[in-house]
């Protein structure tokens, strides 16, 4: 998997972003869907240019008093769409910088509109900058980039740079779900999440071996299973 290192402004600081923004070129139809549909679902006032003072988002204005969930890195959007349809009274924010994945979800939304979905196409840390404290009730981190080389483990989402501001944005007692097929990612998650204030809810092995009751397999999970890797389903409380 190719990656890019870019720098994003946040306040007076610049951040490195490790990952991909784009894969294969989009077709003309995909590009048009992206242009038209993203305007309907995009969350405004997140970029530095739009919101230089980093004022908090007015989630009540965006979602009309709905409970708010967050999916970080939604890939092709299968799970996000599933949850949005299953929970129409919940507002779901999806964050995905990879434009090809964003285009896939927007195609789904074009065919099956969901008024309870809003999207951001950049670094999740920018979302954390403007989310009100204790505003999110459930978070999904599903098959995040594993960064398998040891020297790259600091780039993983399960570091304090990401986990602490995420915890700050979540209500007390809210749930964080993490799914991964990489055992070393599990190890790092179980080490780092408690430092940020999360508590693992597993009581026995079935709690991390079995998917959640409202789970839907993503294309990444199907690929992992095909290649013989074992999914792990970790549930934490903030």
Helix-strand layout with pairing:
Blueprint: E1 4-10, E2 13-19, H1 28-41, H2 59-63, E3 67-72, H3 78-86, E4 90-95, H4 99-111, E5 117-120, H5 124-130, E6 136-142, H6 160-169, E7 170-180, H7 183-192, E8 199-200, H8 206-209, H9 219-226, E9 232-237
Parallel strand pairs: 3-4, 3-6, 4-5, 6-7
Antiparallel strand pairs: 1-2, 7-9, 8-9
Helix pairs in contact: 1-4, 5-6
Tell me what you see in this structure:
The chain is of the alpha/beta class. The protein has one domain (about 30-235): 3-Layer(aba) Sandwich (Rossmann fold). It is about 35% helix and about 25% strand. The protein contains nine helices and nine strands. The protein has helices spanning about 30-40, 60-65, 80-85, 100-110, 125-130, 160-170, 185-190, 205-210, 220-225, and strands spanning about 5-10, 15-20, 65-70, 90-95, 115-120, 135-140, 170-180, 200, 230-235. Helix 1 packs across helix 4 and helix 5 (about 125-130) packs parallel to helix 6 (about 160-170). The relative contact order is 0.14.
Features:
7-stranded mixed beta sheet; Rossmann fold; 34% helix; 9 helices
Beta-strand percentage range: 15-25%
Helix and strand string, N-terminal first?
A: EEHHEHEHEHEHEHEHHE
Strand order of the largest sheet: 5-4-3-6-7-9-8
The fourth-level CATH homologous superfamily is Vaccinia Virus protein VP39
CATH class: Alpha Beta
């Amino acid at each position: 998997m190719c990656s890019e290192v870019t720098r994003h402004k946040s306040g007076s600081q610049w951040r490195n972003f490790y990952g991909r923004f784009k894969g294969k070129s989009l077709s003309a139809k995909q590009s048009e869907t992206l242009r038209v549909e993203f305007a309907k679902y995009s969350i405004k006032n997140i970029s530095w240019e739009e919101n230089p003072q980093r004022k908090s988002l007015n989630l009540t204005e965006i979602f009309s008093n709905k409970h708010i969930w967050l999916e970080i890195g939604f890939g092709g959007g299968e799970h996000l769409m599933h949850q949005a349809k299953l929970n129409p009274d919940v507002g779901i924010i999806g964050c995905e910088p990879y434009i090809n994945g964003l285009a896939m979800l927007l195609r789904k939304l074009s065919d099956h509109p969901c008024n309870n979905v809003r999207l951001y196409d950049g670094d999740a840390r920018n979302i954390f900058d403007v989310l009100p404290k204790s505003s999110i009730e459930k978070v999904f981190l599903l098959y995040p980039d594993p960064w398998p080389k040891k020297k790259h483990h600091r780039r993983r989402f399960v570091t304090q740079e990401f986990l602490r501001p995420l915890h700050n944005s979540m209500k007390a007692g809210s749930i964080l779900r993490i799914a991964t097929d990489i055992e070393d990612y599990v190890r790092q998650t179980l080490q780092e999440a408690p430092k940020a204030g999360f508590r693992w809810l597993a009581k026995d092995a079935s709690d991390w071996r079995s998917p959640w009751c409202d789970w839907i397999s993503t294309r990444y999970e199907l690929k992992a299973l095909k290649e013989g890797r074992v999914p792990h389903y970790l549930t934490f409380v903030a």
